[in-house]
Amino acid sequence: AVVMYRSLIENFKANTGFTAQCQSPQQPEALPRQIAAASVADGNSCEFGSAQYYAYCGFGGLLSCGLTHTAVVPLDLVKCRIQVDPDKYKGVVNGFRVTVAEEGMRGLAKGWAPTFIGYSMQGVCKFGFYEVFKIFYGNLLGEEKSYLYRTSLYLAASAC
Fold first, then answer.
1. Can you count the helices (H) and strands (E) in the chain?
2. Whole-angstrom Cα distance, residue 114 to residue 120?
3. According to the model, what pLDDT value does residue 48 have?
4. pTM across the whole model
């Protein structure tokens, strides 16, 4: 993996044949850029790369990872019980029935708190630090190379 990243960085430095042209060869003046972006009302957004931006990214990770993994706790609980005692829990539906009969509906929620806390922390770090490293690596490469090698940049940021 280290060799792959070293090779990736050397390719960025060498600029292996990929160039962006800001001017058309037929026209001496640069073509105007047209950027389309969604508009939001004042006060409903934050500055890209600000602490608030990273906090929003982290909160998105908390919601997406913490809540989704917590939602499947009952299924995971039944799956683990099937693996431990296949004679008692003969299948998924039977596993749910036996668990509810023996422990009630609350029995299906065993282990939800550590799952929620652990996966929430993982989501905060994954989503928040991905944005940190994406911006950091993009600044190291510069605007043109960041655009040209954006897929590699995104992969490198997600690997950290």
1. 8, 0
2. 10
3. 84
4. 0.64
Q: Say how far apart CA 159 and CA 7 lie, in whole Å.
A: 15
Distance of CA 36 to the CA centre of its chain: 24
Q: What digits encode the pLDDT tens for the residues 91-103?
A: 999 999 999 999 9
Residue among 104, 109, 75, 102 nearest 88 (CA)? 102
CA–CA dist 123, 141 (Å, integer): 27
Encode pLDDT of 31-45 as tens digits: 566 666 666 677 667
Three-state secondary-structure class, residue 23:
strand
Beta carbons of 89 and 78 less than 8 angstroms apart: yes
- The rounded mean pLDDT for the chain is 83
Percent share of the chain, pLDDT over 90? 63
The C-alpha atoms of residue 39 and residue 73 are separated, in whole angstroms, by: 39
Helices marked H in 15-149 — which ranges?
51-61, 68-71, 73-84, 92-103, 112-141, 143-148
Cβ count within 10 A of residue 23: 10
Per-residue tokens: 50: 């600000």
**12 to 19, 22, 90, 137, 155: CA distances (angstroms):** 12, 19, 55, 11, 14
Phi and psi angles of residue 72, each rounded to the nearest 5 degrees, phi first: -95, 10
